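In response to a reviewer's request, we include the raw inputs and outputs for one of the modeled complexes. The two entities were modeled together in a single run.
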Amino acid sequence: MSEPAARYDAGTRVVRHRLADRLYHWLMAAAMLVLLGTGFLPILGLRFAWVDAHWIAGVILIALVLFHIFRALFVLRFADMWVGWREFWQSFAATTREVISGRSAGRRLGKYSVGQKMFHHAVAVVVLTACVTGVIMMVGVDSPFWERNPLFITEKTRGVVFLLHGLAGLCSITMIMVHVYFAIRPEKRYMTSSMIGGWISRSEYESHHDPKLWSVEK
Amino acid sequence: MEIFRYKSDAWGQRVLEGVSWDLLWFFVGAALLFIVLHAIYKRRLLKGSAENE
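The model returned the following structure tokens for the whole complex.
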């Protein structure tokens, strides 16, 4: 069960993100914002009852991540998100040439650029770390799933778990800021629109993407 | 700037509590630095392309 190649819709549109993936993206964004708000605003001095909102948003995020892992394994095309060594070094070399010369190489992309794929993998590592450590931390608070057990892990292990969870939160701030920056850049706005409407125009596909790297059915 | 937070456990021993929240501004700063550098790189590319035309 694998997603077929993207297709032209009515001859003018190319489907980029299906509804399930768009809903996943925006619900994940909402969950992340609630998690960062409830996690960091109290540290910045804003006092409110944040624990329940934090773990509930965390449980929602875990459910969304499991849903996405299922789709990535069985529905979406793994190749679209895979970064090969050759592709990585070609992109690295082309970007280096652009930085040195100040001239655009006019590269056309697959469905995602190497940068987007690397960003996705970094987010995956950070979010999975936050989810796993979050579940371990949740054992220490009362929830509908279990009674609080503060002795579930030793004090030393708790320190490491809290360290990793905090680091994941801090990395998420950097990643979200960079992600929003790219989303509003003029040359990327057509991609951002596709995360709302699901499609890009045929001319956007032909001017930005290489059919050999991202094939679409006519 | 501290990297870790420590606390005393029930036996008075110093144990790791987590990452230091002082780092929050380092991570915000890293994002801002990346954004500024990338914007400069893109602006330079745009200028280079315009000069070529």
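As requested, we also summarize the result in words. Chain A has a mean pLDDT of 91. Chain A has eight helices and four strands.
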